[in-house]
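Quick question, first post here. What does this chain look like in 3D?
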Amino acid sequence: MAEDVPIKAAQTSFRIINTLRELEGAGVSTLAERLDKPTSTIYDHLRTLEKEAYVVKKEGKYYVGTRFLGIGEQARSRHRVYSIARQELDKLAEQTGEHTNLMIEEHGKGIFLYKTRGSEAVQLDTYDGMRVPLQTTAMGKTILAHMPRSDVEAIIDRYGLPQITEHTITDESELFDELDQIAERGYAFDDEERVRGMRCVAAPILNEQEQAVAAVSVSGPKSRLRGGEYEEDLPERILRVANVIEVNLTHA
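> Answer (accepted):
Ran it through. Tokens below.
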């Protein structure tokens, strides 16, 4: 079997792209300092990326180019669950007035595949394509709850259990206890575990093998998501939506 040998030049280009995205644009010197690379190396990579239209230069700074829009949309569209779930999530957002979301797991991270806002939704940092640690969200926890334990342990070994807020689960035994509860009741809660002041209720989208191919959720401020609304009404709503998506996935 061939060894997993990384191509350093390719790694550097991808690190540059990711850093440009994180910083929302940067100059050569900033990138060189951030990535601990010679400015000449960074400049050569940027020139190549610019020539291939993956980055653009404006007023001395480089930015991620719009070419990634087409790549991202093509990647998203190949997931059938996206086209099927989108309409249901739009309706749920209209009914609740809050954020509704669709997440998949890829390379051990939770990926926001789609999100939409109801009329009362607050501003959040989430966006289509955003990658987050799975254990920090209700959707991610429902996905983990339907994975083999060995797969969950492999994700923890790779990424750890990063703490985002004081409510994030960072203890492995506590996480597995919660995953057991989620698997038993069929839905998950997120009580300020990724964003302070926000709560979320999520349910998995299961295939015929009872594996989570995705998860859907409703999220909103804890001042609105409380009591019976948070503990009973929203779980029932999100379970109904998940069931509709599962049936459509099976028979569409």
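The beta strands are 55-58, 61-64, 99-106, 109-117, 131-133, 188-191, 198-206, 212-221.
The first strand starts at residue 55 and ends at 58.
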